[in-house]
């Protein structure tokens, strides 16, 4: 499929980019997309949650009342979870939430996500650009030219460009990544995916394996 290449002013350059049908025009696999997004979100979790249990609470170990004859339930320790200030029963413990998926499934999920965006006409191909110095205003001008001020925009670069990255860092709705950092979650989370010409070859090479 062919798509017009735009310049940083939002105007057509007169060139066309050929997007591979094996990456941008497949039948989306919803279950693969679900699993890849689930893995991405699970891997973001630190898993450092912890509450004190009965054995970790400071307090007396004496039996707080006699076993029988009180008319109430038996109680052996003030540290029991049924009392205020006691340990938490079945509380959270540190754990690793990360999960693994095979590479072929992850590639399928990313191709599916890109195909969804292409079907929604939410993919823009932009000519390669660079900034001499980090300047948020320069990046904001590009967003205005592409009518993306109030949208979540994902810019995918071919190679890492620190000035472009730093220029976008203060803008809440925009994110700049390289083609090797592309993930299913980031594709779906964006309203518009802006692919720079230099990123196309890397994307198609990585996802066509």
Structure write-up:
- This protein is of the alpha/beta class and 209 residues long.
- The chain folds into two domains: 2-45 and 100-207, Ribosomal Protein L4, Chain: A (3-Layer(aba) Sandwich); 51-91, no CATH class.
- Helices cover 33% and strands 15% of the residues.
- The protein is built from seven helices and six strands, in the order ββαααβαβαβαβα.
- It has helices at 21-24, 30-44, 103-119, 136-145, 162-168, 184-189, 197-207, and strands at 2-6, 12-18, 123-126, 153-157, 174-178, 192-196.
- Strands 2-1-3-6-4-5 form a six-stranded mixed sheet.
- A hairpin with a 5-residue loop joins β1 and β2 (12-18).
- α2 packs across α3 (103-119) and α4 (136-145) crosses α5 (162-168).
- The longest helix is centred in the middle third of the chain and has 17 residues, at 103-119.
- It is elongated.
- The chain starts with a strand and ends with a helix.
- The relative contact order is 0.18.
What are the defining features of this structure?
209 residues; alpha/beta; Ribosomal Protein L4, Chain: A; 2 domains; 6-stranded mixed sheet; 6 strands
Write a concise synopsis of the structure shown.
The protein has 209 residues and is of the alpha/beta class. The protein has helices at residues 21-24, 30-44, 103-119, 136-145, 162-168, 184-189, 197-207; strands at residues 2-6, 12-18, 123-126, 153-157, 174-178, 192-196. 24% of the residues are buried.
């Amino acid at each position: 499929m062919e798509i017009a290449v735009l310049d940083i002013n939002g105007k057509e350059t007169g060139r066309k980019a050929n997007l591979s049908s094996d990456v941008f025009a497949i039948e989306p696999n919803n279950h693969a997309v679900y699993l890849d997004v689930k893995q991405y979100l699970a891997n973001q979790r630190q898993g450092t949650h912890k509450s004190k249990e009965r054995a970790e609470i400071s307090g007396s170990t004496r039996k707080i009342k006699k076993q029988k004859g009180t008319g109430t339930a038996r109680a052996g320790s003030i540290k029991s979870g049924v009392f205020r200030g006691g340990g938490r029963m079945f509380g959270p413990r540190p754990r690793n939430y990360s999960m693994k998926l095979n590479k072929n499934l992850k590639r399928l999920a990313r191709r599916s996500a890109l195909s969804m965006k292409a079907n929604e006409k939410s993919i823009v191909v932009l000519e390669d650009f660079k900034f001499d110095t980090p300047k948020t205003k320069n990046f904001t001008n590009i967003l205005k030219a592409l009518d993306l001020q109030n949208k979540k925009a994902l810019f995918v670069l071919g190679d890492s460009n620190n000035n472009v990255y730093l220029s976008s860092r203060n803008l809440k709705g925009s994110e700049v990544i390289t083609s090797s950092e592309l993930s299913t979650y980031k594709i779906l989370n964006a309203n518009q995916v802006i692919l720079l010409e230099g990123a196309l070859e890397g994307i198609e090479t990585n996802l066509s394996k």
